[in-house]
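so the lab meeting is tmrw and i was supposed to have these ready like two days ago... anyway. pasting both below. for each one the top line is the aa sequence and the line under it is the structure tokens. i havent really looked at them closely yet so no promises
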Amino acid sequence: MPKFNPDNLNTHELAIEEPEKEAELPFDPERDIDPEHVKIFQKMIEAQISYTNFLTAEKYLGMLKVLGLPHNLSPEDFEKIKVEQKIGLKDDKTLYIETESAADLISLDKILGINNVKDTQADFMQVELDGYMKHGYLRALHIAARMKEAGLNPVISEEEKKKIDENIADMLEGYDTALGMGTLEEVKYLADARIAGFSFNLSADNWKDFRQNIESPEWHPIRALDMYYRLAILVADEVKIPKGGGLELVRHKKEGLTNQTPILPEQKQF
């Protein structure tokens, strides 16, 4: 067997390839949401509870939960929301005339794990969804998305799906600017479409429009929280509806892309 000669060592064979870096997300809640803004959002919830605006408080709570941000509520305040919601469900029969409020309440019950809602009003919601589909897709998709979060299966015809796909494509290409380019209203529409099961690709220009709106000097906490929530839905790899209802955003990390130190080839002692 030939004797090892270190002078013949090919150092190129020992070169270590640097792992491919994961592409930077166009929006990352952990990176892009200022902790001081989170404190403002928490105070917004406390204020809504003190004003007895419990449905609004639930909306903000649901957004923080889906974003993975702390709500900082006391157990007493959370219990107050649960009790007031139950009273509303039991006594306020007019609630279901306000279709969007009913849809919000039912979906938030599932997202927050309150579980007061026993009757998800599936038939009523589908009738309302069908009615909205005849007059435009903005409110219809809102109902469809809330139905999905409530664990229901909204029925949308193939013809309606095709029209919505075309509408989304026109919007993202800038042909349909009725909602404004990159505005909260446009982002709401797209986020609801994604929850409802529609697929589409967002370009760098689309994300540039979105970011211009969240970085606007006219920053307002209510609109900012809503915008962050919708962008998180759009940037997620998967929008997951757990069994029985709710909403979870999943991001799949690329396998093998870790911060661990790469293992060096075993060195021989000479």
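ok protien two:
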Amino acid sequence: MTRARFRSAGGLLAAASVLSWIACSSSTEPGEAAASVTLLVTNDTCLEGPCVPVSVRGRVPRYAVPGQPKVGFLRLGTVESRSACLVFPAVDSLTVSGPDHTTVLRWMPSDDVSLRAFDPRDVATYTIWSVPIIDTTSYFVPASARGWRVTFPSGTGAAVLEATDPCVP
């Protein structure tokens, strides 16, 4: 390799290093963990007798693709006791493959989501696309608060979310 080509290759390597550093940098300092957004779910079925499990999913507008189940693709967890602390993922992705190309859609807590609650035991009778929804919330941006609180089922058909201090998972 001649000296001119080496300098050119060295310049490309330096530029690639700077670009990869910019692409991978984050807003947190090294060693500092990004804060998680939590959701405290109260399972109101536990008031009388044994608790009915409540699965909580998010319906993400960005994932508006044909075939999205009405409960949504964003899995947050199942509450089998009186309450549970769930954590929103820092990033969630959905890969959509078609005959000509594949697209990856990403969701983060700074994006909109609506929560859906359902009895996971119903999936055995129905499918995830037709399972009856127990309750829903309006759309909100999880990152607008460190913690959220909701009660399912609300008894009103529209559960109310409240911003609160983060819970401990």
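from a quick look at the 2nd one: Confidence is low (pLDDT under 50) at residues 1-33. The chain has one domain: 35-164. will dig more after coffe
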